[in-house]
């Protein structure tokens, strides 16, 4: 006898795992980023409460792919998610990272690489994009690249 896709105990256990992976000691996602992550892993869903066991497993697998090991986290810093995203978005995210390197000297105090928050702030101002970079669609990331290129051109970097 197999596991029911709507088994309440199995769903509760998986939701608890998801909460641990996205909580303050995990990826530290705010509510908007959390819901965007769910809709990225399971299109059409924005809440774990609406998901079956199989869909919750897909979310857990997605989170495990995003979550780095401790050694990777120390090495890559806040931009570590770039190298773990799906290929269709990774090209744009790598370009955004390169533009963040160019924007770093514009920060106060100057930095080697602009923070993710700084880049998201530029995207929010120029495009009205409110989703965390790692959960943006490829189309939105393309628009962010264009906005950052304009920002760099205006700033002369």
Can you describe what's shown?
- With 157 residues, this protein is mainly α.
- It has two domains: 8-66, no CATH class; 81-155, no CATH class.
- Helix content is 60%, strand content 0%.
- It contains seven helices and no strands.
- The protein has helices at 8-22, 31-41, 53-66, 70-76, 87-103, 116-127, 138-155.
- α1 runs parallel beside α3.
- The chain starts with 7 loop residues before the first helix and ends with a helix.
- The mean pLDDT is 85.
Give the domain tally.
Answer: 2
**Distance, first to last CA:** 63 Å
Q: Tell me about the largest β-sheet.
A: none
- Give the amount of beta strand, in percent: under 5%
Helices and strands in order:
Layout: H1 8-22, H2 31-41, H3 53-66, H4 70-76, H5 87-103, H6 116-127, H7 138-155
Write a short abstract of this structure.
The chain is mostly helical and 157 residues long. The chain is 60% helix and 0% strand.
Summary keywords:
single chain, 157 residues, mainly alpha, 2 domains, 0% strand
